[in-house]
Amino acid sequence: MDKRELILNKNKNIIILKLGGSLLTDKNSPFSIREDVVRDSIRQIIDAKEKIILIHGGGSFGHPLAKKYKIINGFNSSVPYQVLSLTETHHSMNNFNSFLIKNFLDMKYPALSIQASNIFVKDSQKILTSSMEIILTMLDIDILPILYGDIIFNKKGSFSIISGDQIILELCKKLDRYRISKVVFTMETDGIYLNVDEGGEDCILATERYSDDLEHLKLANLGQKIDDTGGIKGKLKFIKQICDQNIPVQLINGLKDGYIYKSLKNQKIDCTNILINR
Ligand code: IP8
Question: Pick from 142, 160, 155, 65: which is nearest to 104 by CA?
């Protein structure tokens, strides 16, 4: 058996892990990375020794620009410098991503970035994908693929934003040859919080919910958001669609000591588990 066959025969289970943009960046200060959080997350990913596709969000590198220039709504000739800022948004996300890649490489771990704007295009509302073969081949040879929220072109002569969550959903629908055992979203809280009583301020962590129940949850409002791609409600819509692909989802606190590692190793943690309906 040659070396390639050996590689291709290895474990075909993968985990998709998203590091939230507001976890990795300082939302009160544009273009600022929480370097200690990034390094600690990377250390845990490397220590876990699992096959992963890593996705990260935009945080203060993506959302403020996208919002200011109304990029999510597409081409608008009345927004000054909109096309220039579209390219700046992409560039800003690349800079952020380069910081992560460099840290992986500094720790001697092979990681390679894939720009979503180069592999996805929209045809009206539908997202089309050129090929998953690049990502699959990276997985075959144990390179960590890293994708991130980006701009996306529309074949009708416009553009928009593709969030990390949208990227994950597309991967869940279109990746073959590998079985996605779960999707993990890291955030700054332990998961989804629910209001205990109508109008009151007390809330509890939802530790386990079925995906069919997601749209009826009484979500607690946990404060400020810079997210221009939907916030927690938008996230739940994506999570429902991910579960519809028979993939369970976990929402975890990326700031808690060792939680990323523990989640990747399926160890018990305080978090929200979204189960596939019976
Ligand atoms: O933080 C948004 O990605 P997200 C990316 O996953 C940009 O929603 C460019 C705003």
Answer: 142
Q: Does 163 sit in the ligand 1 pocket, CB within 6 Å?
A: yes
Q: Tell how far the Cα of 21 is from the centroid of ligand 1, in angstroms.
A: 7
Residues 163 and 57 sit within 8 Å (Cβ to Cβ): yes
Question: From the CA of 202, how far away is ligand 1's center (Å)?
Answer: 30
Contact 57, 149 (CB under 8 A): yes
- pLDDT tens readout for residues 231-240: 788 899 999 9
pTM for the whole structure: 0.93
Q: Whose CA is nearest to atom 5 of ligand 1?
A: 149
Confidence at residue 1, expressed as pLDDT on a 0 to 100 scale: 41
If you measure from the C-alpha of residue 61 to the centroid of ligand 1, how many angstroms do you get, rounded to a whole number? 9
pLDDT in tens, 18-54: 999 999 999 889 999 999 999 999 999 999 999 999 9
